[in-house]
Design brief:
mainly alpha, Rossmann fold, 2 domains, 7 strands, binds tryptophan
Length: about 325
């Protein structure tokens, strides 16, 4: 049996090349090998303050970005989470078997709620990992590609599935992370930190225009705060970008130049820009075509939602029977 993959991405604004190299590009490969479900998790986006009027646009932009990057609706099921409301019902059923202690000990919860009074922390932030578990388990997915930052959430998913199986009988498969080696892309202007949409000037958006991409790479920090014996983080980041965008041979050459002390950062940056643009130019073009045909885009997402919902409904029915919610 082919394994089933599920992963989610939040519609919270800018998608940058760190997100692309860390997750999306990987999904594009996975859709060829697995039965894949990729979900725009709008319910998750409600756990932090957001602008309701802007959310639908964020969702469509993300849908267009994913399609432009190469997700193919013929090969995977791409859909919007709230088009399958069954996710929330399963969340409730799982909430009832999840210990509060375990939720409150989650690293991400602690980080995000730090310094806030309990009365101002939404319960959604606390329960978010249960929603994530429900996303995965409602499809009985067994493989979940995620970044390192989500491993604790996956462990919780496994615990919840195990507890459910113990209480109500074997229902969910063992969930496993799918950790593919991807480059960790650092902030261009502060290469000790991870590239992030919350650090202005740190990122290149996936659909950014060519001139702006060239400018940001030209300005990328190369040699601050370096230990003289190791490659400075900004330079290492440029090497990583070059390799991630298909310039492995050039990167090997620049690494030699670095060792020899003959490297010219302007040449390195030029090479990074060329390789990056070769990959991003077509993505940007497709993005603009897709987003211009809003109705077509909505149709693709709606179709994905229907396909996902058919499976979610079936599985939820079985789950409802097990917990005693189906009356004859
Ligand atoms: N929590 C994930 C993130 O912030 C997104 C997500 C939601 C997810 N549901 C998921 C990832 C299910 C994998 C599987 O990145």
């Amino acid at each position: 049996m082919t394994e089933r993959v599920f992963s989610g991405i939040q519609p919270t604004g800018v998608v940058h090349i760190g997100n692309y190299l860390g997750a999306i590009k990987n999904w594009v490969n996975l859709q060829n090998e697995y039965e894949s479900f990729f979900c725009i998790v709008d319910y998750h986006a409600l756990t932090v303050p957001y602008e309701p009027k802007e959310l639908p646009e964020r969702v469509l932009e993300l849908g267009a970005t994913l399609l432009a990057s190469g997700l193919d609706p013929e090969k995977c099921t791409l859909f919007v989470q709230s088009d399958v409301p069954e996710h929330t019902e399963l969340t409730w059923l799982l909430t009832c078997i999840t210990p509060v202690g375990q939720l409150s000990r989650m690293t991400q919860f602690k980080d995000k709620s730090q310094g806030q009074a309990a009365d101002s922390i939404g319960a959604g932030l606390l329960c978010y990992p249960i929603l994530m578990a429900a996303d995965i388990l409602i499809y009985k997915a067994n493989r979940v590609p995620v970044g390192e930052d989500q491993t604790q959430h996956l462990e919780l998913t496994r615990d919840i599935a195990r507890r459910f199986n113990n209480i109500y009988g074997e229902t969910f498969p063992e969930v496993q992370g799918l950790f593919t080696k991807t480059a960790r892309i650092m902030a261009l202007n502060d290469p000790e930190k991870k590239m992030s949409k919350s650090i202005p000037g740190s990122y290149i958006a996936l659909t950014e225009d060519e001139a702006s991409i060239r400018k940001k790479i030209r300005r990328a920090v190369t040699a601050t705060g370096a230990d003289p014996n190791t490659i400075p983080p900004g330079v290492a980041n440029l090497f990583a970008l070059l390799e991630a965008f298909g310039g492995e041979e050039d990167a090997a050459r620049f690494r030699e130049d670095y060792q020899a002390g003959t490297i010219r950062y302007s040449d390195l940056k030029e090479a990074v820009a060329e390789h990056m643009l070769a990959e991003l130019n077509p993505i940007r073009q497709r993005y603009h075509e897709i987003i211009a045909d809003r109705e077509g885009l909505k149709k693709i997402l709606a179709r994905g939602g229907e396909a996902a919902r058919t499976i979610a409904r079936q599985n939820l029915h079985e789950i409802r029977e097990k917990v005693g919610l189906v009356y004859q």
